[in-house]
Amino acid sequence: MYSLYKRRWFAAILLLLSLSAKVQAEAYISDEHLDVNIVHNQTEQTLSVNLIIDGPPGQPVSVSEIILGVTDLSLVSFDSGLADAFPWAGDAGDAFYVLPSVDIAGELYLGIAAYDTASGDFVNNLVAMDFVEFTGPGDFFLNVGDNEPKVDSRPGATAEQTFTLGTGGHEHMSWWFSEPGIYQIGVQARGTLQATNETLSSPLVNLQFLVDPTPIDFWKISTFGFANAAEGIDLSEVGAGGLPRLLAYAFDIEPESGGPGKLPFQEMVQLNGETHLSLVKRRPMDRGDLTYTIQGSTNLTSWQDLSEHTHYSVTAISNDNDGTPRNRITLNNPLDERYFLRVKVSFER
């Protein structure tokens, strides 16, 4: 068997704690032992699914309270050996984010468990976790060993789309994602009662995955909710507040209600008795996935990229009313003709 874990380690990009705090009540966990756990209520004869942190016995939490983090430490680049070992996944040169089936420091160690089921309650002492819905920017696989995946989100896939385990059991497998971004995976627990031969199914719950996130992913989740973020947020779309969503993110403006008052604006400043054109813009923290380019024009048609020191200076000024830091960009040369400034915002994952 070809080892999936003989690979180069990638340096981790540490996400600021403030980003995780923005995901409201949902906790972002990327380096713990968690299990997706099947629970059998013997009194009511129902099944449900929760998450167990560091089990067993561990801490049970609602699936909706946790965002499962997959960092760039899990990125695996396929060479010819891996492509031969996992032909169902892709070709040499492809890359996948793979949560491993073994416990590796710094990575999420995610399993499937049936801690809260008892021997003798279900036919053959078996229960199952069915994977029934997939939303996200890429493909998802659940794999055990080198065999065909147990779960394959690709349209027309012939995978079983289920994982079976013994009552009281606990197993680990590898979780594969073909692209970075926000994924929502719907699962249901299932089992057939030994006493009545009745098949029980739990309500569907959505596992929430955030793969190699950038700050904008956290903003999408906190602003639009996880389900909408997983469906995809068009950053060029204009919100109810009248701004394209990318600009709302760039300047930390509520996209559905924020107005133009927080956008950059031009001011004239006096320096050594001469008039200089300046631009005041909000400088929200944690926007490392954006590039802000200052551009200038004499006619509002042709725009030139300007550079700090060569064309302008930057100074911090008083915070905006909501506490967001602000900068003043001031042209080095005094104003001697009509001139305009603007900010170009670019996003690249």
Report what the structure shows:
This protein is mainly β and 349 residues long. The chain has three domains: 17-231, no CATH class; 235-259, no CATH class; 264-347, Immunoglobulin-like, CATH 2.60.40. The chain has five helices and 24 strands. Strand 2 (33-41) and strand 3 (46-53) form a beta hairpin. The longest helix is centred in the middle third of the chain and has 10 residues, at 215-224. Residues 1-24 have low confidence and may be disordered.
List keywords for this structure.
349 residues, mainly beta, Immunoglobulin-like, 3 domains, 7-stranded mixed beta sheet, 5-stranded mixed beta sheet, 5 helices
Short précis:
The protein has 349 residues and is mainly β.
Write the layout of secondary structure elements.
Layout lengths: L16 H5 L5 E3 L3 E9 L4 E8 L5 E3 L4 E5 L4 E3 L2 H6 L9 E5 L9 E8 L9 E10 L4 E4 L7 E2 L9 E5 L3 E3 L1 E4 L3 E12 L6 E3 L3 E7 L3 H10 L1 H6 L13 H6 L14 E7 L2 E9 L7 E8 L6 E2 L6 E6 L8 E6 L8 E8 L2
Parallel strand pairs: 1-5, 2-8, 5-17
Antiparallel strand pairs: 2-3, 3-4, 6-7, 7-14, 8-13, 9-12, 9-15, 10-11, 10-14, 15-16, 15-17, 18-19, 19-23, 20-21, 20-24, 22-23
Low-pLDDT stretches are: 1-24
Helix content: under 10%
Distance between the termini: 34 Å
pLDDT averaged residue by residue? 90
Q: Percent of residues in beta strands?
A: 35-45%
| Alpha plus pi helix count | 5
C-alpha geometry: elongated
Tally of strands:
24
Query: What Rg do the Cα atoms give?
Result: 26 Å
Q: Specify the biggest β-sheet.
A: 7 strands, mixed
Structural class: mainly beta
Number of domains: 3
Q: SSE order, as H and E?
A: HEEEEEEHEEEEEEEEEEEHHHEEEEEEE
